[in-house]
Amino acid sequence: MTLIDSKLSDSILVTPDFRLVTLDFDKQMMRRALELAARGTGQVSPSPLVGCVIASGETGEIFGEGFYLYERVRHAETLALEQAGGRAAGATAYVSLEPHAHTGRTPPCTTALIDAGIRRVIAPIEDPNPLVAGSGFAHLARAGVEVSIGLLADEAARLNEKYIHCMRRKRPFVHLKLASSLDGRIATRTGDARWITSEESRRRVHQLRHEYDAILVGAGTVAIDNPLLTDRSARPRRRPLARIILDGRLNLSPTSQLARTAREAPVVVFTSEQVVPESASALEAEGVEVVRNVAGGGRDLAAVLDDLSRRTLQSIIVEGGATVAAAFLEAGLVDKVSFFVAPIIIGGNDAKAAIGGRGAATIAEAFNLRDLYITRHGRDVEITGYPDKGDA
């Protein structure tokens, strides 16, 4: 079996027997597998997004398709094979992630592919789960199935970036999202912040929230905005968006929107051990979970992420405020950044800046973003990228 980097060639892929395979049809089918996988967004965590297409390169015919949903407990490969039936024999399976060869919540997908007579399996990347991690490819190759790896690898890795990060780093993927004016302000000198960005941007933010398991803000944001912090994308999700608050003094009011809706979607508050017991009890009576024993009373962000990881939360979107944003950046815990910038200028020395904290002493120390993409939402611009941590 030969592992191929997708960047090596724009027109060929090397299979185990070193034949050259034209990529036009293969790329088309792999893109379809990735599209299918994306249909599981919000419905697979803590598992990965997976899509599968069973097709014939000779006739260009698609025999079966499937994508994974956690609650369905049936993998994409199995669903696609069931659709294909006997036509799967001699066909190619295009799978957006390495098929698994172990028995977990389902029997091995590799066994199903082999038993169906699949001749060739094309998958872009290896599954980083230690229970899989190359064993799926090895099982297929031992059974005589041709295995090609690397096609659209970058796209596949980006689609499953939260899952891959969580598997490799053993902590949730953290996406910092901020909305600011053109001059980098998130509120006026009087604290007015509604609304800096457009309705189109706000709709996009709810689409982003839909991709994540949890949303995190600081106590200041809650005190000023009294937010709900919900996913209002109207798209299906497996679990309600968990709402995480860093509140060292436990100022969250039992009458806040968060507390009053805690039985509808989880609210977890990280605070210090020194808080008044009555304050915690009043919140707990509303269904809020108060965590008092985490290191630093919620200021130790690595400890907070460890706690959230134990709750099988794969990904978190951090939405404020300036102090919390700076703390995550300075701790090196931000994995992705999105700025929604509105074409307005607020000005004023006392207007709130998007990022607080100490800030960089020199330009060389500033946080650099790589792999940028820029999109328009109404009048606003979304700039998204990945912090350059020196390990890319």
Task: Summarize the structure in words.
The N terminus is likely disordered. The chain is elongated, with a radius of gyration of 23 Å. It folds into two domains: 150 residues, Cytidine Deaminase, domain 2, CATH 3.40.140; 218 residues, Dihydrofolate Reductase, subunit A, CATH 3.40.430.10. The strands form four sheets. It has a nine-stranded mixed beta sheet with strand order 13-12-11-10-14-8-15-18-17, with helices on both faces. It has a five-stranded mixed beta sheet with strand order 4-3-5-6-7, sandwiched between helices. The chain is built from twelve helices and 18 strands. The chain is of the alpha/beta class and 392 residues long. Helix content is 27%, strand content 23%. The longest helix has 16 residues.
Residue fraction in strands: 15-25%
Radius of gyration: 23 Å
Identify the strand order in the major beta sheet.
Answer: 13-12-11-10-14-8-15-18-17
Spell out the CATH superfamily of the largest domain. Dihydrofolate Reductase, subunit A
Low-confidence segments, given as residue ranges, are 1-21
Q: What best-fitting shape do the alpha-carbon axes yield?
A: elongated
Q: Using the 3D structure, state the CATH architecture of the largest domain.
A: 3-Layer(aba) Sandwich
Which features would summarize this protein structure in a list?
392 residues; 18 strands; 9-stranded mixed β-sheet; 2 domains; Dihydrofolate Reductase, subunit A; single chain; alpha/beta; disordered N terminus
